Amino acid sequence: METFFQLLVNGIAFGAIYAMVAVGLTIVFGILEVVNFAQGEFYMLAAYVTFLVYLVQIPYPLAIAIAVGTMVVIGLVVERFAIRPLIGRAWQLPILSTLGISIIMQNGAIVIWTPNPRTIIIDIANLNIDIFGVVIVFQKLMIVFFALALFIGLHYFIQKTKTGKAMRAVSQNKEACRIIGIDVPRISSITFALGAGLSGFGGALVAPVMAIHPVMGIFLVLKCFAAVIMGGFGNIKGTICSAFILAIVESFAVAYVSLQYKDVFAFLVMIIILLFRPAGIFGKKVGI
Amino acid sequence: MNMRISKVLVIIAVGIFLLGIPYFVTSPYVMHIIIFSGIYIIFALSYDIVVGYLGMLSLGHPAFYGVGGYTSVLLVMKLDVPYVIALPIAGILALIVALIVGFPALRLSYHSFAIVTLAFTLIMRAVWINWVSLTNGPMGIPGVPRPTIDIPFLGAIHIETLTDYYYFILILVIITCLFIYFMIHSRVGRALLSIRENEVLAETLGVNAFKYRMIAFAIGAFFAGLAGSFTAHYITFMGPEFTDFYYITMLLIMVILGGSGTIHGVIIGAIAFTFIPEYLRITPEFRDVIYGIVLLITIIFMPEGIGGKINEIIYKRRVKTG
Questions:
Q1: Tell me: the pLDDT tens digits for B285-295?
Q2: DSSP H helical segments within chain B, as ranges?
Q3: Which of A217, A255, B64, B254 could potentially form a cystine with A44 if both were Cys, beta carbons 3.0 to 4.6 Å apart?
Q4: Higher confidence at residue A218 or residue A187?
Q5: Residues in chain B where the model's pLDDT stays below 70
């Protein structure tokens, strides 16, 4: 029974990470209609930035802020030069350009930092907490806590603020937004930067508990794609639920079915669901 | 009439040139790259059926290449099937797998299709790496026999030297090109183009979009399977690295930079990107960075590719001369 809870807690912690990255993907899709293959690379780069900043003795909370800030800036640059010129042209062009960016970042990271995994050792992050016999690493609690706080904040931002309302409007009808004077390119920039920042936050949070290496982003982002598709493209709540479902299924499947096929379960779940519901479990329409 | 004669002359000249290549290319290394260009021409053209003519972004093409390769290698090595039979079976099995994958995947939206096909590649890769008893896992299968083609009454042709392989791949390339050319100019091709340009309109005119998508996806997989089978028997090795993500990038560059939806453009792209990396002697990571940059620049500045540009120039000249 303890193993069961242990696996459940692990699944939830990873689900929180998947959800953070996947929500970034889904809002970018909902508003720009772009599948962002580089989303996983923001996660990877943020982990590296955290690592580098932490090396020069900057405290971890500040390192998180620096990593997220850097990703937001990189996100803005990528949006401006690789996405915006392609909006309104053939639908596969932005996908291909984000794929190109992903390849550049991933292999660039290998060139700069070598493929060897790096680790950050933070004592408090690796503290084991015993709750009724279930041992939890402190950082995993922090991940879940931050993720929940972030999702609540995001919900408030999208539902209540003026920018959030503009984002929802853009996801529904771009033409009408232009007519009533919403600056669509500005909203696109904000959305893309927000997506990059969410992914970066995930990367900064996992840096103390996972090995940091250049291909950590690509496998994660593929599972996040699975979550996005299952949730129905552009549906934030559906995406979050799917991300947790996938991570929990994966956690149990690795323990009880097979470790070698670890990276396959998420895709199998996705394909099985798509067989029966081609628009995803929660999906019907596109829009956030 | 004049046009037709000059066209025939060009075809004869190109034919003589292609047949003569083994006589004036003396370096075995260059010959090897030329044979690989042939493989990539088939691979890229088959990919272009899906990306260019069908207009769907499949990221599952390397998996079909792998299916073809493993099928023919296992048939020849474990079951002693003659290569002449193993080669078409490799293509047909890739085609069947494509039908199985395409049945759910081609019903999805464009974006979901891209991701589901990518997931398919990764699943196949995981299977090939972990099913050690069949595929020898990450080590791959060494010592794949070179092809022997038995022709009744004439005896067996052993394909051993680079020249033999060259003529063999030349035949396969010509078959692929002719097949694709005639397919595009047939009912199926016109249906595909109509679906690519306007699916709703095509459907209202009675074109069954799903059926034609399945056909195109399966044919693409068939030729990818042939290319995979040939490669394995040429380098006498088959391993899971053939399904590496790198191949997706490379194919995309060949097709997009060459010009998706054009046969000549894709051939140019495939040849160029077989030769360039061979002469760019740099680490694979650095090469991939450059590939990424090339892909990005092409997409932003020249999404129609070299083939598209050539078509544009020819069209303009025709308009000018009337």
A1: 788 888 888 88
A2: 2-24, 28-48, 61-79, 83-105, 110-130, 132-135, 162-184, 187-197, 199-204, 209-235, 245-258, 263-279, 284-301, 305-321
A3: A217
A4: A187
A5: 1-2, 154-155, 322
